[in-house]
Structure formats: structure tokens, C-alpha cells
UniProtKB/TrEMBL annotation:
Keywords for the protein's UniProt record, in alphabetical order: Transferase
Lineage of origin: Bacteria, Pseudomonadati, Pseudomonadota, Alphaproteobacteria, Hyphomicrobiales
Species this chain originates from: Sinorhizobium saheli
One Pfam family per UniProt: Acetyltransf_1
Domain N-acetyltransferase, residue spans: 17-169
CDD domains referenced in this protein's UniProt entry, alphabetically: NAT_SF (cd04301)
Molecular function (Gene Ontology), one example: acyltransferase activity, transferring groups other than amino-acyl groups
Protein name: Acetyltransferase
Entry-linked PANTHER family: L-AMINO ACID N-ACETYLTRANSFERASE (PTHR43617), UPF0039 PROTEIN SLL0451 (PTHR43617:SF2)
Amino acid sequence: MAAVVDTPRASFAPSTFVIAPENPGDVVARESLLDRAMGPGRRRKSSEKLRRGQLPAEGLAFVARDVDGHVIGTVRLWNVEAGVNREGGAVPALLLGPLAVDPAHEGKGIGGMLMRAAIEEARNRGHGAILLVGDAAYYERFGFFAARAQHLVMPGPFERNRFLALELKEGWLVGAAGMLVASGRKLALPPVRRAA
Ligand SMILES: CC(C)(COP(=O)(O)OP(=O)(O)OC[C@H]1O[C@@H](n2cnc3c(N)ncnc32)[C@H](O)[C@@H]1OP(=O)(O)O)[C@@H](O)C(=O)NCCC(=O)NCCS
């Protein structure tokens, strides 16, 4: 999946970017972008506990590239269990984040394009709901609201009014209660070296 977008809001020559699946060669550029956009505190977030040692959900890691192919935006989603439902069964869901756009390219619609691409692909893959921790004033435009996550908790400190959810299947989170738990594929650990 890839979408080329001419951003119409720029008052100078329109800049062009493309949303595409992340590939292994993007990792260094993505991490550098996250450091620039979010600062060193990003690794202390409660969401990070659900991402550490995990691979993103299948097919749900995206980058935005400029015309030269440089990474200027990133978003990934992660498999989680969102508590249990009224029957006591685990509720599979996705955790979104981090979402970040290179500060030099903010306000061109790149964050919005990344969000819409991620939501559309999650829906196409049959997922039922997406959760995230972020500013409601930004994420409500994509359908994320705190009410949907009201009986769920993060595995660490979080602000209730910033803990938001979007149901991709109506009623998916009704009755869901409890703590989010990572449920995705594990990152392969490097082989342990043993002395001869
Ligand atoms: C938040 C972020 C991803 C937005 O990316 P972007 O490409 O600038 O977003 P868009 O161009 O799609 O949207 C810009 C609009 O969102 C608004 N916006 C940006 N951040 C916002 C926030 N935290 N709260 C409310 N509105 C916000 C802008 O004011 C702008 O509004 P307008 O359309 O009325 O002019 C980007 O600013 C960023 O990387 N910030 C640092 C990292 C971060 O906070 N990530 C989110 C937490 S996981």
C-alpha cells in the first residue's frame, strides 16, 4: 500500500510525501526521528512497556517518506489484550504509537495520512479496536474517545483523559475491563555467546 499526496495547504511549492509500509532499512531513521520529535522521555512511557521486546502487529508499521525517500513520519500498531469481556474472555485489540512527524514537516497533513492509513489497514485485517495514549484534541478527529476505554488501564501511570479508543467493529470494547497486556510476536533475541 502506498499513497502519494500533494499537500495543498503549503503556501509555497507543494511538498510531496508517500505513506508506505516500514521496511527493515528504516529502523535507524525512524528511531532518530522519534528522538527528535518526542525527546528522551519517550522510552519511559507506559505504552513502552507494551512495546518493549515485541514486534509490531503484522502489516501495521508505516512510514512517511519525502521525495528523496527519507523517513519523515512514523506510526506503528501493536497487538494487545484489552482486558477481559463479560464472559471472561480476553479482548484482542491494537495499541497505536508512537505517531511522530519530523518537526520540519509538521502541519502538512502527514500525521493525518499516517493515522488514516493505519486505521484503514487495521480494519482491512479484521481487527476490532485500537487504543492509544495521546491528546484527545488531536485524536478525536479520527474517532478516538476516552469513553470507549473507561474500564481499561495501562500497565503504569497514565492520564485517564488521554487514554483513548476507536472501535473498528461496533461494540468490540463493550464490557472490556482490566489491564492491557502485550500479546504480539516477540522480537528475536540475539544469540547468546558462550565461552569455548
Ligand atoms: C502530533 C503530530 C504527529 C501531528 O503531525 P502533523 O503531520 O503535524 O499533523 P497534521 O498535519 O495531520 O495535523 C495538523 C493539525 O493537528 C493539530 N495538532 C497537532 N498536534 C496537536 C495536539 N497535540 N493537540 C491538538 N491538535 C494538534 C495542528 O494544530 C493542526 O491543526 P489544523 O489542521 O487545524 O491546522 C506531530 O506534531 C508530532 O510528531 N508531534 C510530536 C510527537 C507527538 O506528540 N506524537 C503524538 C503522541 S503519540
